[in-house]
Write a structure and sequence with these properties.
The protein is mainly alpha-helical. The chain has five helices and two strands, in the order H-E-H-H-H-H-E. The N terminus and C terminus are likely disordered.
């Protein structure tokens, strides 16, 4: 049996690859991430991190804003580096258990912490 890799087959593989990327994040709730970030970055102001940076990225995500490449934005990275996906922000193809904010109002496929 011959399997074609053209046309719909390539599209299907592309969709599966994009879906897989989201599952390589480690899910973390917002409060836990803020504490972790502040511990690692003692000069950061809590209000600036939560009310300006993270909330901006979360709202962009909820409003369907996507990276310039078309992929969903990475909330954690977007809060620090501008709105973008993991690959565009880091230059790495897929996350290796990097943190992503777990949003209570969304069903996620991220791994629990």
């Amino acid at each position: 049996m011959h399997t074609s890799t053209s046309g719909m087959g390539e599209f299907s593989l592309s969709v599966l690859a994009k879906a897989r990327v989201k599952t390589d994040f480690t899910s973390i709730n917002l409060c836990d991430y803020v504490e972790l970030h502040l511990g690692a970055n003692p000069g950061t102001k809590r209000v600036e991190l939560t009310q300006q940076q993270l909330e901006f990225a979360i709202n962009a995500h909820r409003n369907g804003i996507r990276c310039q490449c078309g992929a969903p934005i990475w909330i954690v990275g977007s809060s620090q580096a501008g709105l973008g996906c993991f690959a565009c922000i880091t230059g790495q193809a897929v996350p290796d258990h990097d943190y992503e904010i777990a949003l209570a109002d969304e069903v996620t496929t991220t791994r629990p912490t």
